[in-house]
Input
Amino acid sequence: MSFLFTALMNGVAVWLGSKYLDGVKVEDFYRAIIVGLVVAFLNAALGSFLEFIPTPGRIASFGIFSLLTDALVLMLADYFLKGLTIKSFWWAVALAAVVSVVNIIAHWIF
Output
């Protein structure tokens, strides 16, 4: 249940990010949910490995490395999925921040 909840919240966050960030485009809400599923899967498969590599830097930077890791995962999803367009790495960082904030709020509420 936690994986599906996280995937749904990722989809909602990507959709919200596409509405408010000029450098992020998603075709529709359905596509955003698919992106959320793919991002949740990539985080489950690659995220722990990518988080392990810069652990000392993540601790020293107060989580900025985690944000950059999430941006890389979003860029990877952009590469593989039609219907998602992220113009640059910095837009991916902004989208990663939106996804993080939405997930924090959703997990706090639910």
Remarks:
- Residues 2-109 form one domain.
